[in-house]
Amino acid sequence: xPDAEYRExxxxxxxxLSEPHVKGVFEERLPLxxxxxxxxxxxxxxxxxxxxxxxxxxxxxxxxxx
Length: 66
Prior knowledge:
- This protein is mainly alpha-helical.
- The protein is about 35% helix and about 5% strand.
């Protein structure tokens, strides 16, 4: 949805998105790695062996545990 259209319909969208059956809204052009991180959310943790890594260096999926 273009920004201009969103601004025009913001009130209606807010009402629609607050419905109990709506679980979330995601950006259509979201990079896959960010989408994966959002899906993993708080159900994962960094394994002890990888905790010395820098956040700037990032982590591999093998560095995470459920």
